[in-house]
Hints:
- By secondary structure, this protein is α/β, with parallel strands linked by helices.
- It contains seven helices and six strands.
- A six-stranded mixed sheet has the order 3-2-1-4-5-6, sandwiched between helices.
- α5 links the parallel β4 and β5.
- The longest helix is centred in the N-terminal third of the chain and has 32 residues.
- The protein is globular, with a radius of gyration of 19 Å.
- The mean pLDDT is 79.
Amino acid sequence: MNSKTKRTNNQVNSVMKVQEQREMVEKANRILSEMKSFTWRDLETQGKFNKNDKLSFISDDMLILGCDIGSETHYVRAIDTRGRELSRKALAFDNNAEGFQKAHDWAVQLAAANDKKQIVLGLEPTGHYWFCLAAWMVSNGISVVQVNPYAVKQTKELEDNSQQKDDRKDPKLIANLVKEDFIYW
C-alpha cells in the first residue's frame, strides 16, 4: 500500500470515528432528556409496596448501578438486567458535587453505549454518607434504591467464596442485589 492510500484510509477512519462520536453524544443527550427519577415516595401506594410493584420497577431498558458508599470515596459498577457487567472496572468518585457529576456522566455514557433509557442506582446505606449522593442523583434524573446491608453481608461469599470486604467487589454485588429485587424503599 502506498502512502497516498494509507493517508486516504486514515482520513476515512477519522471521519467515521467523528460520526460515531456524534451519534453517541446525540444518544446521550436523548437519554438525558427522557430520564425520569423515582424515589420510594413516588412509587409507594398507600404507604406500602407489593412484590409486583418492585418487580415491575426494574425493566430491560434499565442500566443498573451498584455503589459502595465510603466517607470520602464511593465506588460504582454497572450491569444490565441479565447480570452482564457493562463496566470494565469500578469507577471511583469523590463524595462531592464534582464526583457525583463524574459518576452521572459515566453512567449516561454507558447507558448510551448499551441502548439503555433509564438508570437506577442501588446503594448500601452506610451511615449518613449516602444522603447527599442519593439526593443529587434523584435531582439529576437517576432513580435511587437501597439494598439491605444484611443482604450484602450474607451474599458476599457467593461472588468469590470470601467474606473479605473489597470496595471494588461490593458495587457489583450491590448491583446484582438490585437486579434480583433485594431492595427496600
